[in-house]
């Protein structure tokens, strides 16, 4: 029984392609800028107050790894892509329930558990497309401007981001089985993911409050540590993966018990 | 040629069906509903609904819009949970999700609101359903109902959406079809085609559960009817009995005003007379009515089906108590 998976995968293709193109364009933009501004980065680092860098987890801007971590991964990947996954997750169930597509889907010999799991499984499309496409673009672009990029660190920054993105989708999914209106589910999911990201960044500014950010998924994915220091936090990724599975399980339990 | 009259209900002929499937004798319950109740806060959408639908019958579930027909259907499909009572569909209890999911390969469902994936073409949508439950009768159905398969569903008219819905509901050759307002949006020709198709399915031993707010439609194809109003089943009977009690809406235009006492008979109720035109509900035999009318100088006559509301009014009163005889 993979009909739902096939259909859902197909529905994810367009968004994934668009995002891949956006990331390719962004990469091209930043890499073409880098040789011109590399020398000025020291001055740049001095010009801004330190908390700005702490907020985004930025360092070593004069290296290609630090620059890419700051420009591409700290914002576009950790925040905007996370919001995209939350948005998609929030649409998975609520949209079908609202438009009565779920009535027809569930008139088939397919269980509600299976519908949720197949819809979640269809996230493989953006996960694979972006985590294969974007590192290739970044790697090639680095070579093109005469820089070399550590391929292992690059692979890790993507691999370890997958549990993070899935948790964001999971937050959306829980809202999706809980809320009847897809716009409310999506809006709540993206605001929530943004707030969690913000809480993580802001709480890092003061060691006394840093623990608050432990609840935020982005606390467990540090793109700068991976790219600049080659620190691969597999344990943190494991925590994210476990959180994702819990969110999916909660969604399944809610969805199988509710009226649609 | 046998005489073709309005009252010639094809349902009456099916007692002596010569169809090949002898196992499909009516009687064993395909749907069994027992005290089914669904409340939303203070609103009771279904209130202790109880009846059975036997194998090989077309059961009409009749009621005005908002009466609770769709609620019953969605309870039968397990989309919503009963507050009290239960039902079985092909032997599976609607509260037992696993059992209900299993029997769905033998159930066809045509919802009132057809939620297709609008970006897909009709063909892709049918392929999608076929992967889950088969499509051995797809081509045959597409000869009767012809939605534009290569166009995206978002461009479909409501009639085309309905036809695509009909094809998906029957293409896996289900034992039971649950149809929620199946002909809404179809043009009259397609409605006739649908009715003929449903009769053929019934004759082949399939069970059809069919909701409608149009009495004439139910009257034409159904063997038995359950009437629901305000969430309660108010009548459950053979269609012939219902029609007998329902009478006919008659409008007679006379050349000149006649003395009402001479014109009105005891079978006429709710008589309204304006100048030369008399409207009434006739509860007697059609032949007697015609014999009576020829005695007057009649310019025009219309004899039609009574409105569902009139049936309620005349025969069930305005009380909300279920009638004796409800299962």
UniProtKB/TrEMBL annotation, chain A:
It comes from the Archaea. GO terms for molecular function: ABC-type transporter activity. The chain crosses the membrane at residues 12-31, 72-94, 121-146, 152-175, 182-199, 237-256. GO terms for cellular component: plasma membrane. Pfam families: ABC2_membrane_2 (PF12679). Keywords: Membrane, Transmembrane, Transmembrane helix. This is ABC-2 type transport system permease protein. It comes from Natronobacterium haloterrestre.
Automatic annotation (TrEMBL), chain B:
InterPro entries: AAA+_ATPase, ABC_transporter-like_ATP-bd, ABC_transporter-like_CS, ABC_transporter_ATP-binding, P-loop_NTPase. Keywords: ATP-binding, Nucleotide-binding, Transport. Residues 1-11 have a biased composition (Acidic residues). Residues 31-255 form the ABC transporter domain. PROSITE patterns: ABC_TRANSPORTER_1 (PS00211), ABC_TRANSPORTER_2 (PS50893). The keyword ATP-binding applies. SUPFAM superfamilies: P-loop containing nucleoside triphosphate hydrolases. GO terms for molecular function: ATP binding; ATP hydrolysis activity. The keyword Kinase does not apply. It comes from the Archaea. Signal peptide: none annotated. CDD domains: ABC_DR_subfamily_A (cd03230). Residues 1-28 are annotated as: Disordered. Belongs to the ABC transporter superfamily. PANTHER family: ABC TRANSPORTER ATP-BINDING PROTEIN, ABC TRANSPORTER ATP-BINDING PROTEIN NATA. This is ABC-2 type transport system ATP-binding protein. It comes from Natronobacterium haloterrestre. The lineage of its organism: Archaea, Methanobacteriati, Methanobacteriota, Stenosarchaea group, Halobacteria.
């Amino acid at each position: 029984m993979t009909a739902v998976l096939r259909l859902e995968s197909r529905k994810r293709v367009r968004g994934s392609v668009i995002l891949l193109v956006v990331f390719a364009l962004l990469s091209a933009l930043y890499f073409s800028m880098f040789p011109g501004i590399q020398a000025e980065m020291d001055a740049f680092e001095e010009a801004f107050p330190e908390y700005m860098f702490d907020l985004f987890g930025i360092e070593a801007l004069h290296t290609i790894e630090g620059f890419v971590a700051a420009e591409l991964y700290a914002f576009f990947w950790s925040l905007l892509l996370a919001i995209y996954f939350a948005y998609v997750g929030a649409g998975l169930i609520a949209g079908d329930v609202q438009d009565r597509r779920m009535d027809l889907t569930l008139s088939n010999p397919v269980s509600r558990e299976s519908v949720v799991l197949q819809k979640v499984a269809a996230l493989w499309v953006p996960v694979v497309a972006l985590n294969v496409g974007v590192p290739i673009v970044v790697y090639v672009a680095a070579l093109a401007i005469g820089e070399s990029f550590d391929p292992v660190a690059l692979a890790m920054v993507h691999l370890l981001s997958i549990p993070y993105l899935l948790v964001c989708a999971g937050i959306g999914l829980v809202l999706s089985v809980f809320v009847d209106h897809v716009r409310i589910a999506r809006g709540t999911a993206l605001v929530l993911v943004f707030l969690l990201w913000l809480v993580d960044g802001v709480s890092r500014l003061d060691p006394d409050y840093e623990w608050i950010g432990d609840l935020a998924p982005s606390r467990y994915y540090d793109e700068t540590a991976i790219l600049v220091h080659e620190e691969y936090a597999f344990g943190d990724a494991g925590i994210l993966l476990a959180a994702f599975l819990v969110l999916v399980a909660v969604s399944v339990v809610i969805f199988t018990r509710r009226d649609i | 040629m046998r005489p073709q009259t309005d009252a010639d209900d094809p349902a009456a002929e099916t007692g002596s069906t010569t169809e090949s499937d002898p196992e499909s004798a009516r009687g064993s319950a395909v749907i069994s509903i027992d005290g089914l109740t669904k409340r939303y806060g203070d609103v009771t959408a279904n209130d202790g609904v109880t009846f059975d639908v036997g194998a090989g019958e077309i059961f009409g579930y009749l009621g005005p819009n908002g009466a609770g027909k769709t609620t019953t259907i969605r309870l039968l499909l397990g989309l919503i949970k009963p507050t009290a009572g239960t039902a079985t569909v092909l032997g599976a209890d609607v509260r037992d999700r696993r059992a209900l999911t299993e029997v769905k390969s033998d159930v066809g469902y045509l919802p009132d609101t057809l939620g297709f994936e609008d970006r897909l073409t009709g063909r892709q949508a049918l392929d999608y359903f076929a992967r889950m439950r088969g499509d051995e009768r797809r081509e045959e159905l597409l000869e009767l109902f012809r939605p534009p398969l290569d166009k995206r569903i978002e461009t479909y008219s409501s009639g085309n959406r309905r036809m695509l819905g009909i094809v998906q509901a029957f293409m896996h050759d289900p034992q039971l079809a649950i149809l929620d307002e199946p002909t809404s949006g179809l043009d009259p020709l397609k409605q006739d085609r649908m009715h003929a198709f449903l009769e053929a399915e019934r004759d082949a031993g399939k069970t059809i559960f069919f909701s409608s707010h149009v009495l004439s439609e139910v009257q034409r194809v159904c063997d038995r009817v359950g009437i629901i109003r305000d969430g309660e089943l108010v009548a459950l009977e053979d269609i012939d009995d219902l029609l007998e009690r329902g009478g006919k809406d008659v409008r007679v235009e006379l050349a000149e005003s006649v003395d009402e006492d001479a014109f009105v008979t005891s079978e006429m109720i709710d008589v309204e007379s304006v100048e030369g035109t008399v409207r009434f509900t006739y509860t007697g035999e059609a032949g007697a009515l015609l014999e009576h009318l020829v005695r007057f100088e009649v310019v025009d006559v219309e004899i039609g089906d009574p409105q569902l509301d009139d049936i309620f009014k005349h025969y069930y009163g305005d009380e909300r108590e279920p009638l004796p005889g409800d299962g």
